[in-house]
Amino acid sequence: MPGVFLLRGLVLLLLLLAFLDLRWPLPGRVVYLLDFSPSARESVFALAARLPPHAFYLAFAERAALLPGPTARRLDLGERTDLRAAFREAARLRPSRVVLVSDGLLEPVPPPFPLDALYVPPKPHVDLRLVPPPYPLFGETVGVGVVLEAPVPAEARLRVEGPGGILERSLRLSGRRAFPYTFPLTEEAEVRAVAEGPWGRSEARVRVAPADRAKAWVLGDPALARYLEAQGFQVEEGPLRFPLAADQVDLVAVGVGVPDLPEGAPEALRDFLRQGGGLLFTATPRGLFFGGWDRALPEELPLKPLGRKGAALVLVLDVSGSMAGEKLNMAVTGALELVRSAAPEDYLGVVLFGSGSRVLFPPRPMTAQGRKEAESLLLSVRAGGGTVLGQAFREALRLLQGVPVERKAVLVLTDGLISDPKEPILSLAAASGVEVSALALGPDADAPFLEELAQRSGGRFYRAAFPKDLPRLFLREGQKVFRGERLEGRFPVEAASHPLAQGFAFPPLAVLLPARAEPWAEVVLHSGGRAVLALGERGEGRVAALATDLSRSWQGWEGAAPFLGGLARYLAGSRQALALHAYPEGPGVRLVVLGRLEAPVARVGGREVPLVPTAFLRYEAFLEGEGVLLDGKRRIPLRLPLPGEWTPRDGEAVLRALSEGSGGRFLSLGDLPQAASAFLPLRPYLLGLALALFLLERLLEARSGRFPQVP
Question: Which fold does the domain 217-306+486-576 belong to in CATH?
Fold first, then answer.
């Protein structure tokens, strides 16, 4: 059938044309993206009259909006540049061709279509921003970052006002400049800045409020507590609670002695220091050497007594049968505390009494070997017999006669009634010239006799209701006997070259404990050959010792509070301080955090960026937006010097890379397209028509009742 063969030929022809992918030319749609951000809008406005009228125009900055024509203006689209928003709106118009007109001061974003680009120069301008410190502490010197950006060379007169006074500069800018404006933060503060030049005027202001206050626990030094309160510290003066937790206190200032604190306090303070806490010892009448800290914490105290003459103490210890068990055990523990509290120039001896007397060991210097031998002998003591004191007391006085020190003392301990005559003992004590102290243990002790014994010789009387009280009372007596010397008068102070002492004129001291600094310590203040203030690091913490009584020295000196506040902040710094630094890097910043953190992350734009440890107490992350730093319960807002609208870039190179990378062209003004062509693909239509003709052919063959034979 001729008709069938004709249809078959047409089908083959249509399939051939579809294979060739023919396209039908149609009028195209040109979309112009006009950069209306502050840096580019003036150049784009000046160019608008030369743009072709028959096109679609989208203006964009932070947002995008369709314009009725190229000369229309919009100033309500924001102050930054978001190229993604512009690309999204352009894609909705189904363009045949897209042309970006911009200064290139934007974050490059790969376009979803071939993009042509036309470069316009940015407006001469100097952008001014103030970046507050991310984690300012009350009382510390903080810095507000003054950031100036000029995309093209420009001159500017800068004026910054705030708590740090007025700062004025004349600058020639080409690119980015940043410097700090510093001041001590003692209350919420405002910083204002203005930059002016032929290009116009830029203004900025920022408020800075303290993010936190350091916490100080002050023991036994009210004068220091008032100074620290004046410097913005949160000061606690109640009994110290153990164990010391990291979130409980940043600094412990100690103006009391070891016996004034609970058992285990020296060990707890040492652990607190080693784990990053701050310690400050002051020379109140019960502190520093008077409190026995040079013996209780010999490895942690930066000062040691200078020129001590030493003292001698003989312990007359009741070992009668009534002392057996816990009483004797705690008495021996107390004697061991005396051994440990004595310095090498001190002498210690022990005489035992029961039914008779026995010299356990005569007074000997408490050198390392002397301590070792004394501890071994004390651990061998056993109880038994009556309570005869006279012979043991006379023996103790005899032993002290040959000891080459000026200060000599006896400490008598008993839990019962003395069975031998008392008046001879009292008379001997009064005539001996030796300080005799007495300790009555329990309700059965001969307290009236012991109290009179102490009174006649100028010693001290103690009561111990329970055996567990003995070590504390033994140690208290040891501190009274083995005490340092205190000088009173007028002692000029000289400062070493140390940042803590710069800018201060120190008045003379009224009270001074002669002291020397340990080799590992740094002397900040000294008077003649004596150290006044020394500090150093032990473990991860910082410790200092001040060899004067603040209730008598530096009264009326206006610099006392600022100096002591700076010292306290330095000591607390290893635990409290958290330094944040941000370094511009490409489209974002490199954030560096210095401080004690657990598992820090930065939350930016709904996602978390972990901070990677790069060194001891140093963490880093790369951020492309502002957010918060999270670490445990701590939340620190991150306001960073991210690239701004006026951040200098090679805008022409940015646009060239965008256009050429997307398959478009980098245009000059004469290359702007007046119109665009669009092409309709014919393949779907040709294939559809071929299918229809094929079905028609099959229908005709079915009606004729015959099919063509296959040769």
Answer: Rossmann fold (3.40.50)
311-481: CATH architecture: 3-Layer(aba) Sandwich (3.40)
Closest Cα partner for 240 from 225, 226, 260, 270? Answer: 260
Give me the CATH topology for the region 578-645.
Immunoglobulin-like (2.60.40)
Q: If one looks up domain 24-121+649-680 in CATH, what number appears?
A: 3.40.50.410
Measured between alpha carbons, how far is residue 622 from residues 82, 107, 134, 294, 590 in Å?
21, 16, 16, 48, 5
- DSSP string of 620-685, one letter each residue: EEEESS-EEEEETTEEEEE------TT----HHHHHHHHHHHHT--EE-GGG--S--EEEEE-HHH
Give me the helices (H) in 342-487, please: 368-378, 390-401, 423-432, 447-457, 470-481
CA atoms within 13 A of residue 460's CA, in its CB half-sphere: 12
Dig out the tokens for 273 from the structure: 């220091």
pLDDT digits (tens, 9 = 90+) for 500-530: 888 899 999 998 888 899 999 999 999 988 8
Residue range 358-393, pLDDT digits in tens? 999 999 998 889 989 999 999 999 988 888 999 999
Would strands 541-546 and 530-538 be described as parallel, antiparallel, or unpaired? antiparallel
Radius of gyration for the alpha carbons in the chain, expressed in angstroms and rounded:
44
Strand order of the β-sheet with 607-610 is 607-610, 601-604, 627-631, 634-638
Whether the pTM exceeds 0.85: the reply is no
Residue 710's pLDDT is 44
Diameter over CA atoms, the chain: 157
Q: Nearest to residue 191, comparing CAs of 126, 128, 125?
A: 128
Measure the CA–CA gap between 412 and 467, rounded to whole angstroms.
Answer: 15
Record the tokens describing residue 296, joined without a space: 């209780």
Distance linking the first and last C-alpha atoms of the chain: 16
Phi/psi at 626 (nearest 5 deg)?
A: -85, 155
- Tell me, what's the pLDDT at 711? 45
| pLDDT of residue 709 exceeding 70 | no
Q: Are 651 and 666 in contact (CB under 8 A)?
A: no
State the Cα angle at 266 between 260 and 268, rounded to 5°.
Answer: 115
Q: Are 349 and 315 in contact (CB under 8 A)?
A: yes
Cα–Cα distance for residue pair 244/167, rounded to 1 Å: 44
Do 24-121+649-680 and 578-645 fold alike per CATH?
Answer: no
What Å distances lie between residue 587 and 106, 121, 580, 623, 641, CA to CA?
10, 21, 19, 9, 11
Burial of 283 (0-12, 13-18, 19+ CB in 10 A): buried
